[in-house]
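Q: Hi! Curious about what Ribosomal RNA small subunit methyltransferase G looks like structurally. Here's the sequence.
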Amino acid sequence: MGIAREVFGDALPVAERYAAFLADAGVERGLIGPREADRLWDRHLINCAVVAEAIPDGAEVVDVGSGAGLPGVVLAIVRPDLKVTLLEPLLRRTTFLNECVDLLGLSNVEVRRGRAEEAAKDLSVDVVTARAVAPLDRLAGWALPLLRPGGELLALKGERAAAELAEAGPVLERFGVRTTELLQVGRGMVDPPTTLVRVVAGQDAGAVGRQQRAPRRAKGSRKRSS
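A: Let's find out. The predicted structure is below.
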């Protein structure tokens, strides 16, 4: 708890309420595995909180596939300057997230039910976060259209981070990304440090996303003349 106090500072009591809610309702509703309850702090809360090191001041953040709120809720707790949208398609999870936000009194959080492909029609943000959602090649296709030019996808990844980044090369090239890199955050706080894949969006991400969402006519169909 010494490290948790260092990471969360004055927000530690809020983080403790969140941890208790995860260990109770989160496990009961299947959002957190029963075995995770005893290692919530190092494996989940602190692991997510250190991602804040990579996020600019006052950023608008969308947490894609937020699930139990990791990392979105944690980032909102540790960084009240952020405006965080928790984007989740499943009703039972958005219900949990809304209860969580009310319980913790997080005025900087909005819970939104839906898929990233749909949200990209009216969301344009500085940062997209994601943890244990999908391999990077698929995740990039969902996340990049949500970003403003120069915005960043921060994907929490494990030991396959470098391999996933290499495999996602063709997708990232198609979206015209500016740069990619692997980052490690939380040194001295979590062991091993949290690994992030950072992808910086170019000018074309939104246009590519709209092309992918555009309905296609069946092969051989013709436009009917009036």
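A: A fun detail: Residues 2-213 form a domain with the Rossmann fold fold (CATH 3.40.50.150).
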